[in-house]
Amino acid sequence: MTGVAQHVPRTDRFGAGDLLAEAAAGIGARPGRLVLTILGTVLGIASVVVTVGLAQTAAGQINKQFDAVAATQGSAAPATSSGFSGEERALGTLPWDAAERAARLNGVEAAALVSEVDLGGLDVAAVPVHDPSAPRVASPAVFATSPDALAALDGRIVQGRYFDAGHDERSDRVVVLGADAARRLGVVRVDRQPSIFIGDRAYQVIGIFDDVVRRTDLLSAVVMPNGTARTDLGLTTADELHLHLAVAAGPVVGTQLPVALSPNTPEAIEVRVPAATSSVQQSVQADINTIFLALGGVALLIGGVGIANVTLLSVLERVGEIGLRRALGATRRQIAAQFMVESVVVGMLGGLVGAALGVAVVTTVSAASDWTPILDLRMVGVAAMSGGLIGLLAGLYPSLKAASIEPISALRGGV
Q1: What is the rounded CA–CA span in Å between residue 148 and residue 277?
Q2: Closest Cα partner for 26 from 323, 341, 307, 303?
Q3: Which of 53, 217, 231, 310 could potentially form a cystine with 37 if both were Cys, beta carbons 3.0 to 4.6 Å apart?
């Protein structure tokens, strides 16, 4: 019987299980070195997570403040144009029911007319008697507003109450005082029904307000109903309509409000509402993120170099082991894969620990500052897995170096 040469497929002496076992043994052989090796990656990943997490959390807090003041603030006034003489002239007027019209629009939470009243030389005082010999003191300014002015301007009543629609319709002689104007006029309590005098007319003080965020000039002013100002002081036109808007409602309200206030000539009304986003806020936040992410990138680079150095050192220390494995049948690919797996595992350990540390820092800082922590879990997952990518890149050269070692040279003690 003639023998026929048959090709027998080569079976690798070392399988995937052996590869993982050798990699695990190599990683756990020196725990102290392992900790120092992953430290750079831990710091880098933690820096990235903390940077992005705190940036998102801080942005959330900034947005709250921004939304409370700017993103929810709008106004409307008659549009103006310059005549041949250079003087500004109004193209239209605000209707006296502008606040009611605006309040019907979706996205408008409160609206109020605010107008400065020309006193025509009349004095504002807390007593009716005028002493001609006393030095003249400038009187507080007088403003007329709609009943919902404090809601539209984010003000707060500290004593008494604000006037209502009934006072406005009846032109009642009632006023409320800004906190600074009340101190200036010596009105400290309203439960005793104090009065102030504008000229020779007495007006009962029914309230004192404070914390007007949108119009701080009203804190030093006397405020009366629109109807009273029109009847007693000859107010003919409204100066400005203030709006308290829902978040992100600015663009829609800005389109609809001119038509609501002046259906025939909407171009005669100039509306100022916040844009959907703040480009300045986004620019500042982007710059801060860039700086801190660059610092995190440097830390990651240092961590990757550390992994590469330690992996290369491990290759040099285990030359004899590599030679023996090659002599027993391990291929170059298996040797390279062993050290590549070790490098990737070390990188992933650093990524996982770094991501967990970053989340803990963001949560702790937010809790200490009474903030709501905001973290994108996808970003945290990517940051953790990026440790493995760093380990992969860092292990390329040491793995190729290990694979290039010849068995004979290794067993003789050379590389």
Answers
A1: 27
A2: 341
A3: 310
The whole-angstrom separation of Cα 207 and Cα 162 is 6
Q: List CB contacts of 327: < 8 A, sequence separation 6 or more.
A: 407, 411
Distance, CA of 105 to CA of 257 (rounded, Å): 8
244 and 154 Cβ atoms separated by less than 8 Å: yes
Q: Which amino acid is at 333?
A: R
In the chain, the percentage of residues whose pLDDT exceeds 90 is 34
Q: Six-digit token pair at 404? A: 């290039």
Whole-number Å distance between alpha carbons of 155 and 163:
14
* Letter string b/e over residues 102-140, b meaning 16 or more CB atoms within 10 A of that residue's CB: bbebebbebbbbbbebebeebebbeeeeeeeeeeeeebb
Backbone dihedral region of 248: left (phi > 0), alpha (psi from -120 to 50 degrees) or beta? left
Residue 329 DSSP class: T
Q: Are 212 and 162 in contact (CB under 8 A)?
A: no
Beta bridge partners of 245: 108
Residue with tokens 């801060």: 288
Q: Residue 286's Cα: distance from chain center in Å?
A: 11
Contact between 291 and 54 (Cβ < 8 Å): no
Closest Cα partner for 41 from 315, 395, 339, 291? Answer: 395
Give the pair of three-digit tokens for residue 400: 């190729």
Nearest to 195 by CA among 123, 120, 124, 116: 124
Determine the average pLDDT of the residues in 353-359.
Answer: 89
The percentage of the chain sitting over the pLDDT mark of 70, rounded to a whole number, equals: 78
Q: Residue 152 corresponds to which amino acid?
A: A
Look at residues 226, 125, 223, 115 and name the one whose alpha carbon lies nearest to residue 177.
Answer: 223
* Torsion angle defined by CA atoms of residues 156, 159, 160 and 166, in that order, rounded to the nearest 10 degrees: -30
Distance CA 323, CA 409 (A): 8
- CB neighbours (10 Å) of residue 164? 14
DSSP letter assigned to residue 138: P
Chain segment 222-235, per-residue pLDDT in tens: 999 999 999 999 99
What is the C-alpha to C-alpha distance for residues 384 and 42, in angstroms, rounded to an integer?
9
3-class DSSP state for residue 48? helix
Q: How many CA atoms lie within 13 A of 156 on its CB side?
A: 4
What does residue 106 show for φ and ψ, rounded to 5 degrees? -65, 130
Residues 280-307: tens digit of each pLDDT: 556 656 666 676 667 667 766 776 777 7
